[in-house]
Amino acid sequence: MGDKQIEWLIDKLSSSNSKFKIIALSDQLLNPVAKYENYSTYPEERQKIIDLILNEGIKGVVFFSGDRHITELSKLDRIGTYPLYD
User: Fold this and answer.
1) Among 49, 59, 80, 82, residue whose Cα is nearest residue 40
2) pTM, 2 dp
3) Nearest in space to 63 (alpha carbons), one of 48, 47, 84
4) Using an 8 Å Cβ cutoff, are 29 and 9 in contact?
5) For residues 4 and 48, is the Cβ–Cβ distance under 8 A?
6) Apex 18 CA angle, 38 and 26, nearest 5
7) In angstroms, rounded to a whole number, what is the distance separating the alpha carbons of residues 44 and 14?
8) pLDDT reported for residue 54
9) Which residues have CB under 8 Å from 85's CB, separation 6+?
């Protein structure tokens, strides 16, 4: 995404009053396997997004991603807060 898009995303999520915030991405964010096209191949950017969601106290985030030819549900458990799903 790059810094500008990540800043925009976090700003919009932070200012939203919606109970759930669905983020649609072309590639999986939470899949931990750095293979094929997903954000695990960009570990610093992936972690930055995850950390900012936690640090900003943004609730109700769900990722909906594509670019896979299978069905998969990824869950990221986080200490002290809700898990993230993709």
Assistant:
1) 49
2) 0.80
3) 84
4) no
5) no
6) 20
7) 21
8) 95
9) 30, 62, 63, 73, 74, 75, 76
Closest CA to 63 of 22, 32, 31, 20: 22
Q: Is the dihedral of CA 21, 3, 32, 77 positive or negative?
A: negative
Rounded to an integer, the average pLDDT of 19-41 is: 88
Average pLDDT over residues 43-50: 94
Spatial distance between the Cα atoms of 86 and 75, rounded to a whole number of angstroms:
7
- Identify the helix (H) or strand (E) that includes residue 12: helix 3-15
Sole residue written with tokens 């640090």: 55
The pairing of strands 75-76 and 84-85 is antiparallel
